[in-house]
Design goal:
Elements lengths: L7 H12 L15 E5 L5 E6 L2 E12 L10 E8 L14 H14 L11 E3 L3 E13 L4 H15 L1 E2 L2 E4 L2 E4 L8 E2 L7 E8 L4 E4 L3 H6 L2 E7 L5 E7 L6 H34 L30 H11 L18 E2 L7 E2 H35 L28 H20 L1
Parallel strand pairs: 4-6
Antiparallel strand pairs: 1-2, 2-3, 3-6, 5-6, 7-10, 8-9, 11-12, 11-13, 13-14, 15-16
Helix pairs in contact: 2-3
């Protein structure tokens, strides 16, 4: 996957800011980003954070046969891996031009500068020597990978301890760390790379360029130097012509930066040594046994838990007593229900519907009664206006029973027909 190209507006903005001696992250021209060095649980594991650029270096060793040309010297091997996790532009399993360039520069910086005593790595001349392998993994890419890789590699080499070896005749015995203490490597000096980026054909100079600044730069100058102001390697890329004064100026700046970084590395190594001697952990190694992620690690806030019970009792005593009676639920708006602890659950919409149904049923009954009265009045008028008198005498009433005939009339009409029949029977008796 290719890099996402910068737009013309972004490019012009960056160049205009560099002309005004301003940078995106607020740094000055010769300032480094914030650097952090941590170590893993094992010897030789180092993490370097240079701003948002994050690099991990791991050193390992094994016994191998030496080279025929140098039978008394150990072997140094460097490998830089650009994983897609660091940047989408890096491809897995394919060695890009950038990885080859970084690998060669790291070998020039550490191997060709003779910073490590390779003769001390010899176990049996011509038969067994130690091969020291340095694997550098890019975890996040935000510019200036070479400086971060060189710092991580040399710090991991200083932190590494190889197993002790015993020789008896032709037998070579490798002792574990529990049997004998591991032995550190013999390091003469610490070469550190410092990168300078040039803009507009060398007119403007920046130290420690970030990823966006690397995209708009015209050339890059990498100087590897130790704290004794000895230049170990120097490399220029980009095809720009640099004057002697510019190179000398960069070397003076690099000497100041290298001395500061070397002091930071020594302090980190000393702190880790004290922590391991005390039985604790330092830096990244502190989170490994507790299975915590350092990126989300937060300092724990101490909380006093001695008088919690007394404080809680005081708060309960000072608080007002809750009311014994529970208020009845009040539904303020139709359609709003209320469900409470120990209360009767109500729902406003259902109560309103029940009231409407009761009202409707009452009205229907009233309409039926009025209809029945009107029908009875009409029947009486149709008979010719005969008046039926019912006497108050105590004579027995004679009721004629007729077989019931199914009719669709309501019960109220049936009772009225019986009354009419009783009235006609009384009239006949009087006659």
């Amino acid at each position: 996957m290719k890099d996402t190209p910068l737009s013309n507006c972004e490019r012009d903005f960056l160049l205009k800011a560099i002309e005004e001696k301003k940078r995106l992250d607020g740094r000055q021209t010769y300032d480094y980003r914030k650097m952090k060095i941590t170590f893993g649980t094992d010897y030789g594991c180092c993490f370097v954070d240079l701003g948002k650029t994050r690099v991990m270096a791991q050193v390992s060793c094994e016994l191998v046969a030496p080279k025929e040309s140098r039978p008394n010297e150990g072997i140094m091997f460097f490998n830089i891996e650009l994983s897609p996790m660091a940047s989408p532009a890096f491809e897995q399993g394919r060695q890009s031009e950038l990885s080859v360039k970084l690998n060669r520069q790291l070998e020039r910086c550490l191997r060709n500068s003779k910073c490590i005593d390779t003769e001390s790595l010899c176990v049996v001349s011509g038969e067994k020597v130690w091969q020291i392998r340095v694997d550098v993994h890019m975890l996040n890419h935000d510019g200036n990978l070479m400086d971060a890789a060189s710092i991580a590699a040399i710090t991991a080499l200083c932190h590494f301890r190889r197993p002790d070896v015993g020789i008896q005749g032709d037998e070579v015995t490798v002792y574990s760390p529990e049997e004998r203490d591991p032995i550190p490597l013999s390091i003469y000096h610490m070469p550190i790379s410092v990168s300078f980026s040039f803009f507009q054909q060398g007119t403007y100079l920046l130290v420690d360029p970030c990823e966006r600044e690397e995209r708009v730069m015209d050339g890059l100058l990498m100087i590897a130097m130790n704290k004794h102001r000895e230049i170990c390697s120097i490399q220029s890329s980009g095809g720009i012509m640099l004057l002697k004064e510019q190179v000398m100026r960069c070397s003076k700046i690099a000497s100041v930066k290298v001395s500061e970084i070397t002091e930071l590395i020594n302090k980190a190594l000393e702190n880790d040594k004290k922590a391991r001697k005390a039985g604790g952990r330092c830096g990244f190694a502190e989170s490994m046994p507790q299975e915590r992620i350092t990126a989300l690690k937060m300092d724990e806030t101490p909380v006093e838990m001695t008088d919690v019970t007394d404080t809680a009792n005081d708060i309960v005593e000072k608080a007002e007593a809750p009311p014994q009676t529970v208020p009845s639920p009040v539904v303020p708006v139709p359609g709003v229900g209320q469900v409470g602890q120990g209360l009767q659950s109500t729902w406003g919409l259902e109560e309103e519907d029940e009231e409407e149904e009761n009202d409707n049923s009452g009205e229907e009954q009233e309409d039926e009664v009025t209809k029945m009265e009107e029908e009875q009045h009409e029947k009486e008028e149709s008979r010719g206006g005969d008046v039926v008198e019912i006497s108050d005498s105590e004579e027995e009433e004679v009721v004629i029973l007729h077989p019931e005939t199914p009719d669709k009339a309501p019960k109220n009409t049936g009772s009225s027909s019986h009354q009419k029949e009783a009235a006609t029977s009384k009239k006949r008796q009087k006659k």
